[in-house]
């Protein structure tokens, strides 16, 4: 189950206001946020079937899981939904002491998604299949301990396979960008800084890793953050606040 992971403290900032708001209309500070029809339907489905996974919600709505990813992200951020790995989504309990959401200080851990990981020995063919099944633009390569080994993008796979019929049977380790020549972020980094890093290095996503332990080993992968995630969040916030 692939769902966005959020920090409870950040969500609690808005729950008190959300609990006192009229149905389908939330208050963030002094600004009203109008939920979309699909977001209201998601809340209704969760209320009726909780706990329920993102895939099950998408199936009941008749859409794909990626289609509602940003809706679920916003509802969790607004404190309307809660999520637990291997359990699913359920209605969140309101917080007792609300405070304004510090958007500019939003942390990566609050919006990061689960990483899509392959091994260095995974064939190019299997990597391509995984990329399309998971609907991602890149894969993170890690070892059995989850330590970062490299990354491989859609462009890497395309360049390697064009005109090379036997390329699909080769391991992704031959074409990946290897650590430490990879830009990463930690869960405590600001989302705005992650966005700036993506722009600076012209990449579509960044692995989220645990802070270095100083032992010289590659860091452990705990998530990923993508341009798509950022764009969806901005679009949802902009639509809700307009």
Automatic annotation (TrEMBL):
The keyword Transferase does not apply. SMART domains: CBS (SM00116). Keywords: CBS domain, Repeat. Transmembrane segments: none annotated. Signal peptide: none annotated. The keyword Ubl conjugation does not apply. InterPro entries: CBS_dom (IPR000644), CBS_dom_sf (IPR046342), CBS_domain-containing (IPR051462), HTH_11 (IPR013196), UCP026546_HTH-CBS (IPR016842), WH-like_DNA-bd_sf (IPR036388), WH_DNA-bd_sf (IPR036390). CDD domains: CBS_pair_CcpN (cd04617). Residues 111-168, 176-240 form the CBS domain. It holds the Pfam family HTH_11. This is CBS domain-containing protein. It comes from Alicyclobacillus vulcanalis. The lineage of its organism: Bacteria, Bacillati, Bacillota, Bacilli, Bacillales.
